[in-house]
Predict the 3D structure of the following.
Amino acid sequence: MHQYPVIIQGGMGAGVSSWRLAQAVSRQGQLGVVSGTALDGIFVRRLEDGDPGGHMRRGLDAFPFPAMADRIWRAYYIPGGKAAKAAYRTMPTHVQQDPRELTELCIVANFVEVFLAREGHANPVGINYLEKVQIPHLPSMYGAMLAGVGYVLMGAGIPLHVPGVLDALAEHKAAEYALHVIGSRDGDDTTVHFDPHDFMEFDLVPLQRPAFLAIVSSNTLAATMLRKANGKVDGLVIETRTAGGHNAPPRGKLQLSAQGEPVYGERDAIDLGKIRELGVPFWLAGGYGSAEKLREALDLGATGVQVGTAFAFTRESALREDLKRALLDLAQRGEAQVFTDPLASPAGFPFKVAILEGTASEEAVAAARPRICDLGFLREMYRDEDGKIAYRCPAEPLSVYLAKGGKAEDAEGRQCLCNALMANIGHQQVRCGHHVEPPLVTAGDDLTEVARFLPAGNASYGVADVLDALLPKTSAILSDVSADTLLTAAAAPAYAPAMR
């Protein structure tokens, strides 16, 4: 028998929740989660850096379709890694009908990340996606499922179509995903399509369908997911505004505090009584990174909690070591600060920013960066004058954005999160041999408390330190979880190797 996890490790940022972090958490019996955001781009940059440790090669060797794996290795691997001042290659950005090259990258990158996270243990691993980043979803989820992913989590949107997609992909059937296109009209083609048989080199046995957890921030969205989704929603993650990364905007007209942060009110509160009445397992997220808050969540009827910030600063996370050390030092001195920026994200959601010298959290650093959009994961789709899908980003050059019908006020204060998040994990782009993309670290309000995980006399901490602090009496906590929250082995997928 498998149980639902008490602790879900948050799927943080592009690459921060790497396979190493997820593996470390899952090895200890909780749910490790890799971030699926921009994995194709991250995978390519790892290969261009020479694949330190040979981990990507090991994952490629396990991939069921060797010809596809070989094409990608030959196309992107640089022996010994690129020169320090050399630029990473500019990849094509995702469009409604992606070139085969990009689709294959999504399949392979997601497979490798999940495969590596699952090495050496038999516990489930999850993957987290942003609904906002829609075009890569289908091949990305298929690649993760080929590797035996146990859970798919998705937020930053309304992922009504994901359960049905998982059902189809488990049978290697074609699937489609509806795109949000501004200005679209009835009759417009606003879907992406993916047929696994277009990429399979031989037939495979059916895959196990992962459990689906929708990340929501309101009672209305929680009820909508369970009522209108096109398949089974296995559980909910209830995320509050104190969580890192993108936050749900306040309901009603946006008001800002004296510090310039969004003001949340009673309309934004979540009624956990109504959540319990929905009858599915749920986890609470945002400010629940302590044993006391875990106990509180369980007492409120939750199955457990999702914790992000505490894990983001572990030794096992992929956040750059210099950024970890600097922010941990600020936390130890009681000087750590997190600002909920209403403008920074091109996605239009409030975005939590850790204040740190030398990063784009400083106005001067952000202003010195040229407005360049060359990764394009957070672009918005809109209907152009010819009735076709076109793409624009509020963080791209203003003249270009305006020429595409964007409004100047929507571009004010926007930052290129795509490049910044790559910089956070050590894959910062170098332009013209000298301009290096600056990082912009996101963290939840719990950043101020992370120093409590440091063992006495140590300057760093690991996953085991976090879990020891959150679960000081694991057996006592688990015994309080209702039998209704148990998950059978059949519903908690174990890795089923691809078979000819």
User: Anything to note?
Assistant: The longest strand covers residues 125-130. Residues 474-500 have pLDDT under 50 and may be disordered.
